[in-house]
Design a protein that fits this description.
The chain has a domain of 105 residues. It contains five helices and six strands. Strands 4-3-2-1-5-6 form a six-stranded antiparallel sheet, with no helix packed on it. A hairpin with a 3-residue loop joins strand 3 and strand 4. Helix 3 runs antiparallel to helix 5. It starts with a helix and ends in a 10-residue tail after the last helix. Keywords: Signal. This is Lipoprotein. It comes from Streptomyces lateritius.
């Protein structure tokens, strides 16, 4: 019986804390539209439970002044674009993955891979090609017959998949290919 009594008061404590938080919110909301001043410089911005509060305006979540991050900004290691290539005379199965920060990985088959990093200007050029309204109009599937011993390209950008084959590459997709690192899609064995 002693064990059960040890936990008996926790529910009441949580209820009391929840009521206190609610009362604070009602008090702040009822201040006639007055803004609550921020805490003084040098004071803790964390909450009583030890979790950090929202960083001040003009700082990133890491607290770096001047670096702002919007809520919809992708993480640096999130994939920007993925290009899979298969076919050709050698029957390649290759992949290029470019991340938001410009780092990329090229895989040839299952045996080798290499890594690199695009410059900020190159990443901006690739983003511009991907965001071009003409690219959004590129058909999702090739219209004609594939070229014999040609390559098939599968491009994934923002959950949109575009499949193209040699001989049927739309100009907007060609601009994306030209902006990719290492001269375009990985077609070598």
């Amino acid at each position: 019986m002693m064990r059960g009594s040890r936990y008996r008061g926790r529910g009441r404590t949580r209820s009391w804390v929840a009521a206190a938080v609610l009362a604070s919110a009602v008090t702040v909301a009822g201040c006639g539209g007055q803004e609550v001043p921020p805490p003084p410089a040098g004071s803790s911005t964390g909450t009583a439970a030890g979790t950090p509060a929202t960083p001040p305006a003009g700082t990133s979540p890491t607290g770096t002044p001047g670096e702002t991050v919007k809520a919809d900004d992708p993480a640096p290691d999130e994939v920007l674009v993925e290009v899979n290539v298969d076919g050709g005379i050698a029957g390649v199965v290759n992949q290029l993955v470019v991340r938001q920060d410009g780092s990329y990985t090229v895989r040839h088959g299952t045996t080798s891979s290499r890594h690199g990093r695009m410059t900020p200007a190159q990443v901006a050029g690739l983003r511009a090609a991907l965001e071009d309204p003409a690219y959004a109009k590129v058909p999702a599937r090739p219209a004609g017959e594939p070229a014999h011993d040609g390559f098939r390209y599968i491009v994934t950008y923002k959950h949109r998949l575009v499949v193209a084959t040699d001989g049927g590459i739309a100009p907007a997709l060609g601009r994306v290919f030209a902006a990719l690192p290492e001269g375009g899609p990985p077609t070598g064995p």
